[in-house]
Design a protein that fits this description.
The protein has 116 residues and is of the alpha+beta class. The chain has one domain (8-107). The protein contains three helices and five strands, in the order ββαββααβ.
Length: 116
């Protein structure tokens, strides 16, 4: 981008904690720090999925992370479909959009965890 970058992103990462528990971590970042945060989420060894949203909630980009190898492919497909509308993700995005917090993490409330 140019000298006056207008990036103001909410970067979300779904982190593998254990087979029946994932964590959603989010942070609001601007400018060149936005790229650094996105790259950090992409490369974290336990990231299952990462996503970038703008301040209006529009999904900009996303993908699988290295931690996806710990999760069955059926669960990943379901999580990819449901991620933008997941209640935990929506709660984190709304909090980040208001600016009341710049970093936030919550356990993922989701009915798609793999069966034991």
């Amino acid at each position: 981008m140019g000298w006056f970058s207008r990036k103001d992103w909410n970067v979300i990462a779904v982190i593998f904690e254990r087979a029946d528990q994932y964590q959603v971590s989010g942070q609001r970042v601007k400018g060149s720090a936005a790229d650094k945060a996105r790259d950090g989420a992409k490369g974290h060894p336990r990231t299952i999925l990462w996503a970038v949203f703008d301040q209006k909630g529009a999904h900009k980009e996303g993908g699988l992370g290295p931690g996806s190898r710990n999760v069955p492919s059926e669960a990943i497909k379901k999580l990819q479909r449901e991620l933008p509308m997941n209640a935990t993700v929506q709660e984190i995005l709304k909090t980040l959009e208001t600016g009341s917090e710049v970093k936030l993490a919550r356990p993922l409330s989701w009915n798609g965890y793999p069966k034991k």
